[in-house]
Amino acid sequence: MDERPLAYLITWTCYGARLHGDARGAVDGQHNQPGAAFVPPNALREQFERGRMAHEPFLLTKPRRAVVRHAIEETAGINAWRVLCSNVRTNHVHVVLETLAEPAKVRNSLKSWCTRRMREASVAARDARVWAEGGSARFLWTREAIERASRYVMFEQGPDLD
């Protein structure tokens, strides 16, 4: 039997928004399991990571957030994914959705279409590096897990931005 989660919490960040060593915490290969501690703060590591950046950090301004929200809904509609909620912040995006597709494919598709739509709307330069590599997908196996994830996305991200 092929058991699938009821939904996914998919998250990705903007390029340069959270570097390893950042005092706010970050995730790397050794710190990437649910409940695991973040990478410890380390100013030298953060400075090293910043020096490796090929582009300026990318932040989601109000016009960019509007385009991203629309692109998420558009992409989900085309692919028959059901968006339960989303929250586009200044430096990351959360989406809770129902789909039979693999979550990494969903995340990559969302990132690609959001980038394309921002460039078409002239709110992101053609050569701008928009997103950090990868992202995460939390599997939501129960209705309670979906409710918790949705509360987190909608009400635990800080004040409304728009």
Gap between N and C termini: 44 Å
Adjacency order of strands in the biggest sheet:
2-3-1-4
Number of strands: 4
| Biggest sheet layout | 4 strands, antiparallel
Structural class: alpha+beta
Explain this structure.
The protein is an alpha+beta fold and 162 residues long. It has helices at 43-52, 62-79, 103-120, 143-155; strands at 7-13, 82-88, 92-98, 136-140. The longest helix has 18 residues, at 62-79.
Give a brief rundown of this model.
Helices cover 36% and strands 16% of the residues.
Question: How is the secondary structure organized here?
Answer:
Blueprint: E1 7-13, H1 43-52, H2 62-79, E2 82-88, E3 92-98, H3 103-120, E4 136-140, H4 143-155
Antiparallel strand pairs: 1-3, 1-4, 2-3
Helix pairs in contact: 2-3
Question: Top keywords for this entry?
Answer:
162 residues, globular, 4 helices, alpha+beta, single chain, 36% helix
